[in-house]
Every structure is written in structure tokens, then in C-alpha cells.
Amino acid sequence: MFNRDRWSEIIEALTSNWFRTILTAFGVLWGIFILIVLLAAGKGLENGVKKDFDGIATNTMFMWTQIASKPYKGLPKGRRFNYRVNDVEALKQNVPELKFVSPRNQLGGFGGSNNVVRGLKTGAYNVYGDYPEIIEQQPMDITMGRFVNYGDIDEKRKVAVIGEGVQREMFEINENPIGDYIKINGVNFMIIGTYKKKSNNGDAEEAQKEIYVPFTSFSQAFNRGDKVGWMAITAKDGYSITELKTEVFDIIKERHTIHPEDNRAIGNFDLYAQYQKIERLFTALRIVGYVIGILVLISGVIGISNIMLIVVKERTKEIGIRRAIGATPWSIRGQILLESVFLTIISGMVGIILGSGLIYLINYILDSSGPVDMFANPSINLGVVMIALSILIISGLLAGLLPAQNAIRIKPVDALRTE
């Protein structure tokens, strides 16, 4: 229940020495401010780094062949081998936890010889032979037309989806590429769609200069037979591709007569493992932020505790008089605790407001100046604010506990004798 006289006493006690009160409150204010800014900065860094994973199926592994490093069953080391189309079906049947197994073939590359022609224009581009599932593993925005579908796969249609970078270099401005043709290594492909990819790791321009065609027509047009260059493999939700890849490797090794302990014969890039490393890194950064912020806050709480001890010492005679006229120990303790909690919460709330203001200012600057690599949208969620408020309340109680206990130990007679 609100007690006007009690709150008047609290305000009077805290304002009797403004300078001392402000200096004491600054410790808590600074601690909460540092906590909020550190966590927001960590979140901004996390958002910036994770932009590179936007839209990508992170539970994915890319797998290719290398040279066998051990002899096995009469076959020598140093031999090469190729994945086959039936390897894909074998993985799907034997590892039901896999969501997508996409075989891929690749032609050309950036910096290579010109492999694409349209009229008098030529260019060197990465050309991929893919299945429709690849758009789920490496998403892209289809800006015109459509992507490759299973009708294209089954009928081995010579169709292509080109990036906006290819469109800019091969077509005039405002010229519609849909239905037109390009020659890839001398073979005509009809354009059925254009795409745009997001990329934040420095290769945004090159990511738009790729061409996707059906896997089957790629194999037929460029004499690949049933060979598979590499695979993109994604696990189902609830399963880790990192845990499943040993089983995948064992199946491939058995099918291609590779020594079971030959770990160099199969190359792979585990995107999920890399993503988990980033998750662990930012979890550690959050913990460091909490630890540093709380340690700074504790120093502020110690300051409040010290100042409350001084306040109790200064009010010894007042406390003695109150005890002499019937004030209970609990009322004296409650008064000191309330003063401590009030000062802690007020200073902490100012710290929260200043921290939030700084975060808003940083976001405003980022929005005005455009995106910054590795840093985006620093923010604090409501849960962190609630944790900070809980820390403030507990800190205020702890800061006032020792002074309150000292206050109720004062005997009325001894307090009245104090000068």
C-alpha cells in the first residue's frame, strides 16, 4: 500500500546530498548501460554474419570425389573415381533421414574461356546441371519465368535459367530474355527464367552470373553419361547432416570399392558444422556480455551498499528515536531496503533508457548510410530487458540488506546517546 509519509522520507533521504546520490547511482546506471550495449552489439554482429546464411538450407553438406589414398581389394591408391546417378538413389533408400540428395554437374567457370554465346555477344559463366530441389538448398528469387521442374528433367528439355548478371551482359536493357536462346558450348538452350541471389560475402556480382539447366539435358548435351560431379545433401528437420555424413560416406565407399578408413577419398564441405561454430561463438559472446555487464553492475551495487551504510550511520539518532517510540525492526529494515531498491531501480531505468537510445541512434545511422558488412540491426529483446529489471530489483535488495541489518541492531539507548 502506498504510504505518503514513507515515500517523503525516502525522497528526503536521497536528496539531502544530491552529488553523493548521483555518483552512487552512476555505478548501477553504467552497469546496465554496458550490459545492454554489449548484448546489442553482439546481436548486431550476429545478424551481420548470419546474413551470409539467409535463405540457405544450413543443414546441408556438399560432397565431391578426390583421389583414393589407400589401396583396397586389389585396386591401387592414387586412382580417381566418379559418382554415378544410381549413387543418389542408393543414398535416398539407405539413409531415410536425408531430405534432399541433389546431384550436380558443372561446366565452365568465372575467369575461364567463353562458353556462352548469344548473337555477337559471348561470356564465361558457371553452368550447372541440376534437379529442381537445388532451389530449396540454395534459394534464389525467380524474377521472371520459372525454375527447372521435373517435366524438364524427364523430357531432357534444353532449357535454362539465367542470372540477372548474365541477362545484363547478353541482352539489351528492357529486352525480354524469356523464350530466347543462348548457346552453351555450341548447344542451344531456351531461356525459361531469370533469378537473383542474395550474397553478402563479397561475391554478390558473380552470384548473378550463373546458368542452371536440367541435370538430364546437361548430361546428354555435354556427354557426361551417368556421371555426377558432386552432390548437395540436406538432412530432414530434427537430424544433423554432421551426424549422418559418416553413414553417407560408408555407403559411397562401399559402392566404389574405397577403403573404409580412407578419409581423403571423399571431399566435403559441411555447412551445418560451420553454422554451429558460428552459433557457439555468438553464444559465448552473449555470455561474455552478461558477465562483463553484471560485474560492472556489481561494482555499482557495492557503491550503493556503501552509501546506504553511511546514510544509516548519519541517521543513527533518528533510528533510535523511532525505535524508542515503538517502531518495529521490520519497519526500520523495510525503510532502508526500500530506499536502496528505489535508488537502484531509478538509476538502472535511466541506464536502460540511455542504452536503448544509443541502439536506436545506431540503427538510424545504419539505415541512413546503407548496410554495413558483418553488422546489422543491433537490438535487445524484451526478455533481456526483463532480466535486467530482475537483476536491478535483486541488486537493490542485496545492496540494502547489510545496511538494514546494521540499522535494526542499533539499540534505542545507544542511538540516543550518539552525537
Which key phrases capture this entry?
single chain, 419 residues, alpha+beta, 12-stranded mixed beta sheet, two-stranded antiparallel sheet, 14 helices, 54% helix
Description of the structure:
The structure is a single chain. The chain is an alpha+beta fold and 419 residues long. It folds into two domains: 4-53 and 276-417, no CATH class; 106-235, no CATH class. The protein has 14 helices and 14 strands. The chain has helices at 4-15, 18-50, 85-94, 134-137, 150-155, 164-170, 204-207, 215-221, 241-255, 271-314, 316-324, 329-369, 382-409, 412-417; strands at 60-65, 83-84, 98-107, 116-118, 121-123, 126-130, 141-145, 159-163, 181-184, 187-196, 210-214, 227-228, 230-235, 266-270. The strands form two sheets. Strands 1, 3, 4, 5, 6, 7, 8, 9, 10, 11, 13 and 14 form a twelve-stranded mixed β-sheet that branches. β4 (116-118) and β5 (121-123) form a beta hairpin. α2 (18-50) runs antiparallel to α13 and α10 runs parallel beside α13 (382-409). The radius of gyration is 34 Å and the shape is elongated.
